[in-house]
Amino acid sequence: MDTHEKDINGFLQVYDTYKTDVFKTAMRYSNHNYHVAEEITQEVFLKLYNHFEVYEEEYLQAWLLMTAKNAAINHVMKSRREIPDEDIEQKSDLHFMDKSAEEIVIERIETEEVVGYGRTILDELYQKNERWYDAVTMVDCLDRKPQEVAEELGISADVLYSILYRARKWVRKHYDPDLDME
After folding, report:
1. Cα separation of 96 and 104, whole Å?
2. Buried (b) or exposed (e) across 130-147, using 16+ Cβ within 10 A?
3. Cβ–Cβ contacts within 10 Å for residue 27, how many?
């Protein structure tokens, strides 16, 4: 008998000896979920099989039971964080039940128009003054801190605020007197 056959025979002997204990431990810590306990038992013995030559026999039972316990606890904790697919579908369906197809299409068109309008404003602002464009996009569009932007542009914070004021004033004058950019 070669060492591989000894390993397989030894593994089968360990499996027969401890499979019931591992399964019971998995059942206990997985809230008595039979299918989960079966999977955990398989996982535990697969780990053992892959590294069977490494384990010492005197610690083997403790390792098997502890591994089963930890796997079951991890499964229970993970399942608490998961949202069942049915709940996701129901929540998303409720969102669309409020609105008709026409309302949804109109909202999308309006959103695209606003985005396009914003691009037009920024394009013309860039043509008018590149410094204004840089300041507005960094502070208003990218939500960066004015002090950080001023340092990056190599100007003082007061100069940046002055640039932003003039750029915003120009946008209001040319696009919409009611447009609030401050």
Report:
1. 8
2. eebbbbbbbbbeeeeeee
3. 19
22 CB neighbour count, 10 Å cutoff: 25
pLDDT at 65: 92
Using CA atoms, how far apart are residues 73 and 79, in angstroms rounded to an integer? 10
Of the candidate ranges 81-95, 110-124, 126-140, the one whose mean pLDDT is the lowest: 81-95
pLDDT tens-place string over residues 95-121: 555 666 767 767 776 666 666 656 777
Q: Two tokens at 99?
A: 């609105």
Find out whether 152 and 138 touch, Cβ atoms under 8 Å.
yes
CA distance 52 to 18: 14
Residue whose tokens read 């499979």:
19
Apex 49 CA angle, 44 and 53, nearest 5: 125
The model scores a pTM over 0.85: no
CA gap 41, 39 in Å, rounded: 5
Please name the amino acid found at residue 153. Answer: L
Q: What gap in Å lies between CA 75 and CA 36, rounded to an integer?
A: 8
Mean pLDDT within 62-79: 90
d(CA 145, CA 138): 8
Residue 25 burial (10 A CB sphere; 0-12, 13-18, 19+)? buried
